[in-house]
Design brief:
The protein is globular. The two termini are 25 Å apart. Helix 10 packs parallel to helix 19. A hairpin with a 2-residue loop joins strand 3 and strand 4. The chain is built from 19 helices and four strands. The strands form two sheets. The chain has a two-stranded antiparallel sheet. The chain has a domain of 273 residues. With 562 residues, it is mainly alpha-helical.
């Protein structure tokens, strides 16, 4: 009953957010929301930005890449120099070069993959001024790219797709900062930790031992961790740590926050292209994937863990191994699916201890291509790439030039969409193949056999999808995984963003073709079904052989593939 009420409350909360936060974001991105103008205008003057100047897709891309490159360098430098910087009561030393590279790339790409123990590696200064800053900026970059593509559909005969700097600043200033501030206060009120006081040393008079309890500015990081689909935790235990998520309410709010913007952007899409029905169609496809994978994973985790059953231990409540005891199996599964399918990467349970089938649910959900509903911005522009491919296939079926929102989808658009769709699976499969073929990669998994392969496959799937979660059975803090992981995260982010922006520029320059009786409608259940089919076919054909070697073999070994 409690789980059913959680689902109902989540649906109601997201429905209200979809409508009202969506309308607010449209006003912000169109420049009609100016209540923070006293901060916005001085920022433009300070940075030398001309608010009325728009950019072509080439200049938009260059601005994005240069900004992200500088962000990586600054984040890297802070980690390498943290022992000389203030707010370091733990006296943390410099982060090693390979780990600093991996972490800098991770947070700038909205991945937040963590090959380190947060409470034992990063100073307060590094957490706040390097990592948390990127937690705000990286989702803002995702929103900017998504909105640029939406403008490509909405405009006609335009050589520009907006201004990257305006989109970045407005998304951060009007959306991410104020909402994260409010929810950070709620987390503090619920008991989440927020202090600069340093660790506490507790002496146990009974046995004479002393325990060191790490502390820090946790709550302020927690809100944007979820709202920006970041996922990087202050503590290694992430959202299973009571200092990060102290109550059932904070657990619920975490799930709600990480789903909020990806879901809301479908409303933004519909309003900006002039048809909310178009946004609803995209949302319907996202809901299908999310609902099916949540049900599948929850049912799997309600069953016994084969490894525990082999030890003769009864499991009347399902697979409770590695689960958050305060919230239960079902809530942990819901959190896991929500985090992996939104590129958040946060965790309130140990994914490595899921059943083979449940772990496959988390893994294959990411393999869909980050569309269910995907990360902040990235989910929206990725599913639109799939929509273009779907429209092209639909146009071939009826024997006419395909159109989407009045724009003819021709060879250039299909090629760009195809590149964007294929970057992630190619990156995952190539890097996974290299990892299982060389000694440095083979030394990473802590488990042998198919589960060890699953750990490698999951890691590169997570990094290439800018998710950041892990099976946790992989020793990732090695030069091999730090360097190749950084490459995976860069390709999974920018090798998709640039084709998306090129597509936005191409579409914006096109005229609008009036709809006719032969036009394939893209706001109907039929189109939603076609879109779902295309996503499933692309993901299935690409990843089925790899999944078969990992979780499927492991499940069949235990006789529980269902």
């Amino acid at each position: 009953m409690a789980y059913a009420l959680t689902i109902v409350a989540l649906v109601v909360a997201l429905g209200l957010t979809w409508r009202f936060l969506g309308a607010y974001m449209v006003a912000v991105l169109e420049g009609r929301m100016r209540w923070l103008g006293f901060i916005e205008k001085p920022l433009y003057r300070l940075l030398g930005i001309e608010p009325d100047a728009e950019q072509s897709w080439q200049r938009y891309s260059i601005s994005l890449l240069v900004f992200s490159g500088v962000s990586i360098l600054v984040t890297y430098a802070i980690m390498r120099l943290q022992q000389f910087l203030p707010l370091n009561p733990q006296h943390m030393g410099a982060v090693t070069p390979a780990l600093a590279w991996n972490t800098a790339v991770s947070f700038v790409t909205n991945t937040n993959w963590q090959n380190y123990l947060g409470e034992q590696t990063m100073s307060y200064f590094t957490q706040m001024n390097a990592l948390v800053v990127q937690m705000f900026i990286s989702p803002a970059v995702g929103i900017a790219v998504a909105v640029a593509l939406i403008r490509g559909f909405a405009r006609k005969g335009s050589p520009t797709i907006g201004n990257f700097w305006l989109d970045l600043i407005r998304s951060t200033l009007y959306v991410l900062l104020p909402i994260s501030f409010v929810f950070a206060l709620i987390f503090v009120g619920q008991g989440a930790l927020q202090t600069l006081g340093g660790p506490v040393h507790v002496h146990n008079a009974l046995n004479g031992t002393t325990q060191t309890i790490p502390r820090g500015p946790v709550a302020s990081q927690e809100a944007i961790k979820q709202f920006g689909t970041n996922g990087g935790g202050f503590f290694n235990a992430n959202s299973a740590h009571p200092f990060e998520s102290p109550t059932g309410l904070t657990n619920f709010l975490s799930i709600f926050l990480l789903l909020s913007i990806p879901v809301t952007l479908t409303y933004v899409f519909g309003k900006m292209v002039g048809s909310v029905r178009q946004g609803v169609a995209v949302l319907a496809a996202m809901i299908f994937f999310f609902g099916v994978w949540t049900t599948y994973t929850t049912v799997a985790e309600k069953g016994p863990n084969p490894a525990v059953a082999a030890a003769g231990v009864a499991q009347p409540r399902g697979n409770t191994v590695g689960k958050e005891a305060r919230f239960g199996v079902s809530s942990s599964a819901l959190f896991g699916v929500s985090a992996t399918q939104t590129s958040t990467g946060a965790a309130n349970s140990a994914y490595d201890s899921y059943t083979p089938v449940g772990g496959m649910g988390l893994l294959t959900g990411m393999m869909l291509g980050e569309v269910s509903p995907g990360g902040v911005g990235s989910g929206m522009y990725t599913i639109l790439l799939f929509a273009i491919v779907t429209v092209f296939i639909g146009g071939l079926m009826v024997g006419r030039t395909p159109e989407y929102l009045g724009k003819k989808i021709q060879a250039r658009e299909v090629k760009l969409a195809g590149i964007g769709v294929l970057v992630m699976p190619v990156t995952v499969l190539v890097l996974s193949g290299i990892a299982v073929s060389v000694h440095a990669g083979q030394a990473g998994p802590l488990n042998a056999g198919p589960h060890g392969f699953s750990e490698i496959l999951y890691a590169y799937t997570s990094m290439s999808n800018n998710n950041g979660s892990a099976f946790a059975g992989l020793t990732g803090d090695t030069p091999f995984y730090n360097i190749t992981g950084g490459i995976a995260m860069l390709l999974g982010r920018f090798a998709i963003m640039v084709p998306v922006l090129a597509l936005a520029g191409t579409l914006a320059a096109k005229g609008v073709v009036p709809a006719t009786a032969g036009t394939v409608r893209t706001d109907t259940p039929l189109f939603v079904g076609l879109l779902i089919g295309v996503v499933l076919i692309v993901g299935g054909l690409t990843f089925f052989p790899a999944v078969s070697l990992g979780p499927v073999v492991e499940a069949l070994t235990h006789g529980r593939l269902y």
